[in-house]
Every structure is written in structure tokens, then in C-alpha cells.
Write a structure and sequence with these properties.
mainly alpha
């Protein structure tokens, strides 16, 4: 019969610079992705810029209106 005892986990010796190599590899991959994105991006033309500003302003106004309506209803109910 085999004796069922727990084995203690074996600790593997770390390779020199293991954690540092892992971090540097992640940083290198991140930098490569950043460079790829910067190569693809471009400055928007005036039409695209105005459309973005209008959409942002509309969204901010809608959120403000909803907040005002909630505040107004709360004041009317709990007065």
C-alpha cells in the first residue's frame, strides 16, 4: 500500500534576471504598441473636429439636463 502523505512543493531556482526580463519584455511590447498607434493616428480636419465638439457638447448638455431634472424632482418631493 502507498502512504498518502502530502508532498512539499519543490522550489525551482530562478533564472538570473527572471522578473526583470519579464518586466522589460512587457515594456517593450507596450512601447511597440504605442508606436504602432502613433503611426496610424492623424490630425482631424476641421469638419471632423467640429462634429466631435458638437457631439461632446450635446452629451454634456444631456447629462446636465438629467441631473437637473433629478435634483428638481427631489426638491419637489422632499420639501
Amino acid at each position: 500500500m502507498m502512504d498518502e502523505t502530502e508532498e512539499t512543493p519543490q522550489i525551482q531556482p530562478q533564472e538570473s534576471g527572471g522578473k526583470f526580463d519579464e518586466i522589460s519584455a512587457k515594456l517593450k511590447k507596450y512601447w511597440e504598441e504605442c508606436v504602432r498607434v502613433f503611426k496610424v493616428t492623424r490630425k482631424p480636419d476641421m469638419h471632423e473636429y467640429k462634429a466631435t465638439v458638437k457631439a461632446s457638447a450635446l452629451g454634456i448638455a444631456a447629462i446636465g439636463l438629467v441631473g437637473f431634472l433629478i435634483f428638481f424632482v427631489k426638491e419637489m418631493i422632499f420639501r
